[in-house]
Structures are given as C-alpha cells and as structure tokens.
Design brief:
There is one protein chain. The chain has four helices and 32 strands. It folds into two domains: 1-60, no CATH class; 96-294 and 305-482, Methylamine Dehydrogenase, Chain H (7 Propeller). It is α+β, with helices and mostly antiparallel strands. The strands form nine sheets. Strands 3-32-31-30 form a four-stranded antiparallel sheet. Strand 24 (378-383) and strand 25 (392-393) form a beta hairpin.
Length: 491
C-alpha cells in the first residue's frame, strides 16, 4: 500500500501522487480536490466502523451458540433463532410440540370409583365424537374385570365440570355407568367407528374378544347424549373365542381403518399370532388366524421357518394402506404383513445392536416412518425400508422393565406421551426425539404414582380446537390441555 504523504492524494488508477487542490482551482469532479478527498475519507471511516460492529456481533452470536445457554428452552431458542435468521433453527413441528407441552394445564378429572384407592387402570378408551351435546365419553376397566363408563362434560374453559342440578340422563351430572357383564382380564379397549363397535380384548383364554355397540339416542334428541352408556343388553354384547385357541390370550387390538372397503372389523394380537375379526355376524366363524396359528411350544427353529407373527404385543396398520399391518413382539421382532396376498409375512429385527428390546408399542406415523417403544428404555423412529438403524432416537425415554406402560402418539401436535417407570409421564417431540418440558410445577409435573401409568390417550373433545391428553391415574382420568386454569388468567 502506498505511503500517505500529507497534502497529497495517491491515484491508484494512474499510480502517482497529486497535490490536493482547493475546490475553486481543481478541475470539476477531480479526485484530488479537497472536497472529494474529504468525502472519501468520511465514507471509509463509516464503512470501517460498520465492519467493526459486524465483527463484534458475529463474535457474540458465536459465543452464544458455543455455550448453548438455551438448549433446554426450545421456545426461547426458536424465537431468537428466527430473529437472527439462523438456517439451523428448530423445525416448526418441534416448536409446536414444545408450546403445547409448556402450556398444558390440568383441566379436571373424572373419577370412576367412589372413594376407594385403586391401582392404575390397565386400559381406557376416550371418545369425542358427540358434537350434538359436546360431551366426551370414557370407558375404562378397574381391576381388569369391570368395564365402567362416564361422560366428560366441560365448561367454557374446557375444564371438566359436573353439575349438581342437571338431570341424570343429560350426561352432565356425576354418575357412573357400568356395563353389567364380566370382562375378565381386560387388556385393551378400542373403537371401530364405521360399525360403531367397542372392541375389548382379554387375556382370559375363554374369551379373547368382546364386542358391543353403545346404544345411540336420536339425532333430534338434544337433551340426551349421543352415546347412552350402561344400556346392556341393548348394546348387543358378543364374546368371541377362536376355535381350538387353547391357551391363546389377547394383548391388543387394532381397529380396521375407515378407508378399508373389506368386512374387516379389527386385528387382535395374541400370544400365538394375529387374529382377524370380520364384522357382521357373532359366531366363531368371524375369527380366523392371519397365516397359521403358532403352537404355544414351537419346535426348535420354527420361528425362523414360518415367518408369521408370534407373540404380538403391538399392532398398527401401515399409513394409508388398510390391507398391510405391522406387528411388534419381543426381542426386537417386527412383522410386516400384506393381507391381500396369500398369507405371508416379512420378519425383521429392529435395530442392529446386541441388546434385544420388546416392541411393546408401535405407530405408523407416515408413509415410511414407524415409531416403536418398549423396555428396556428403547424408543426410536425407523424407516420401514431400512430397519437396521433408527432415524431418530428418544434418548431420555426411561422404561426398564414394563411392557404394559402407557404410551400414545398425536401426529397433529407432534407429540409422544410415554409413561416412565418412576410413575411419571413425559412428553417428547415426534420429529426430533427431544424431551418437551412443562412449566415448572405445572401441567404433567403433577402426575406421579407408585407404579407406572398404564393408560394414556390423546383425544380431541367436541367443540375444542386441539387434542388433549388423558391420563389414567389410579381410578381417575385426568385431562391436560393447552390453555389457562381459569378464565381471566390469560396473562
């Protein structure tokens, strides 16, 4: 760089010095006039100052990223990343899940027992289809034997609220409705909407599947709820057991998707394979095994030879494929079965590690993505085309030994609710696998029991904008929703 000589201007184009002249004697627009030199000096100083400020700002941002001061606060981090234009900002789905988890509050509860301390309910089903009266419905089992139902009335703040003056048949008074039939060792409760049938599975070897249809009120009857609970035998109860089932017990059921055009009602996962239940009739001929029934004591090498599902702990239909289902078993076993072809299944092992985990829960969340969970402390998302390694791991999931711990997925909120073996319930982002933490001392932080929670369900209530999480704690069903505890506390 040429030396700076006082009173002279160096022209880089002509590569020589010019004496700085007063504007009155220098040629017009001359680069060596006093005004031109002064103007260039001021512009250069301003540009240098702006560069210095930019370097300082970049150093501050880099220091924040390295220190990771906001790694636990997804919402604040996302807001700051958006302001800074960070291309690696958290996804919209992650932020949506974190907002729901941090803003969820206790919205009341429904007690299914009168003044008695009970173990955590094994299973429950929550329905929110009654747009006529706005009432929700919950069916649950206490002691794995009695099926108890209750309505879920809510107020303007979406809080569960019973009325002491409402008529008994309105569904808004506090009352329990028992289906007066024994359902021994109930393991799951689901609902097939097209046929309006409740499907209950049992671990009792005498009856594997129970079906009934809650009685419906007339559409013009706006005084009574759409579902009329506790109306057996009007509800058309049927108990089904497959021929020659022996000691077969049912663990779970998957209702057929509404898009299915067949007579399929549901699939039932048992300890000896998968049962297919067809709708329309009530005798044993409605049941058939998918593939061949697996013997309770198979010969050595039989598992590798037939490829059909064996002990099935979890079932779900492949996303947008009502004729293809997924079945999960013990020792990381996963089966994919196409019912359109002659009975044939493809057997897979989830993951590539030496540790074998139970696929106690599974959910098809998109065309190719599958979410699985089970002990010991394993939850991950897999691509069904490449099952050897997970796409996303849920590293903070803790369940070392409980196959029947509660678990549910809400794709709309991008959330996974999972019961931990310390008696708490945690929320995770479906997209990233990160834990979504509630506000300190609020929301799901208030759930803590001596044994793991076994019943969890995401469900949208009638006339509500977003789904809520229902937790079966003892004999009480608690509701958690995004909102405020009382109207007027929005701030």
């Amino acid at each position: 760089m040429p030396a700076e000589i006082p009173g002279y201007y160096f022209d880089p184009e002509k590569n020589k010095y010019f004496k700085i002249e007063h504007a009155s004697t220098a040629p017009r627009a001359a680069a060596w006039s006093a005004d031109s030199v002064k103007r260039r000096r001021v512009a250069a100083e301003s540009s240098a100052a702006a560069d210095d400020r930019a370097r300082l700002l970049r150093r501050h941002i880099r220091r924040w990223r390295q220190q990771g001061q906001l790694t636990g606060d997804t919402i604040t981090r996302a807001l700051l990343q958006r302001e800074l234009g960070d291309k690696n900002a958290d996804s919209e789905a992650d932020v949506r899940a974190a907002v729901w988890a941090s803003g969820a509050v206790d919205k009341g509860s429904v007690s299914l027992a009168r003044g008695t301390r009970s173990a955590n309910m094994p299973c429950m089903y929550v329905n929110g289809d009654d747009t006529k009266t706005g009432l929700g419905v919950v069916y649950a089992t206490l002691g794995e034997e009695r099926l108890v139902g209750s309505y879920i009335p809510t107020d303007d703040n979406d809080t569960i609220t019973f009325s002491a003056t409402a008529p008994l048949d309105s569904g808004r008074s506090r009352a329990l409705h028992t289906e007066f039939l024994r359902f021994p060792q109930l393991s799951s409760i689901t609902y097939h909407a097209p046929s309006h049938r409740i499907i209950a599975t049992s671990r009792s070897p005498n009856n594997s599947v129970y079906l009934f249809s809650p009685h419906l009120s007339e559409e013009a009857d706006v005084r009574r709820p759409r579902w009329l609970l506790g109306r057996l035998p009007e509800n058309g109860y049927h108990g089904l057991c497959p021929n020659s089932a022996g000691s077969a017990v049912a663990h779970t059921a998957a209702p057929a998707p509404t898009s299915s055009s067949s007579r399929l009602l549901c699939l039932v996962g048992t300890n000896v394979g998968v049962l297919r239940v067809n709708a329309g009739v009530s005798d044993h001929r409605t049941l058939s095994w998918v593939g061949e029934r697996v013997p309770l004591k198979p010969t050595p090498g039989a598992a590798a030879a037939d490829g059909h599902p064996r002990e099935t702990l979890a079932l779900d239909f492949l996303h947008n494929h009502p004729e293809v289902f997924l079945a999960g078993g013990r020792r990381s076993q996963l089966w994919i079965t196409d019912m359109r072809a002659p009975p044939s299944s493809t057997s897979h092992r989830v993951g590539s590690g030496q540790q074998r985990t139970a696929v106690a829960h599974l959910r098809s969340v998109s065309e190719h993505l599958l979410l699985t969970a089970g002990p010991p402390s394993s939850m991950a998302t897999y691509d069904t085309r490449f099952l050897r390694s997970p796409v996303v791991r849920f590293d903070e999931y803790r369940n070392e030994a409980h196959v029947h711990a509660g678990w549910d997925v809400c794709a709309e909120l991008g959330l996974v609710a999972a019961a931990h073996d310390d008696g708490t319930v945690k929320l995770f982002s479906l997209g990233s696998g990160r834990r979504c933490r509630p506000e300190a001392g609020g929301g799901l932080d208030g759930v803590r029991t001596d044994a793991p929670i076994r019943a969890l369900s995401f469900r949208r209530m009638p006339r509500e904008r977003l789904p809520s999480l229902f937790v079966g704690e003892g004999a009480v069903v608690r509701k958690f929703s995004l909102g405020v505890r009382a109207l007027g506390n929005e701030a």
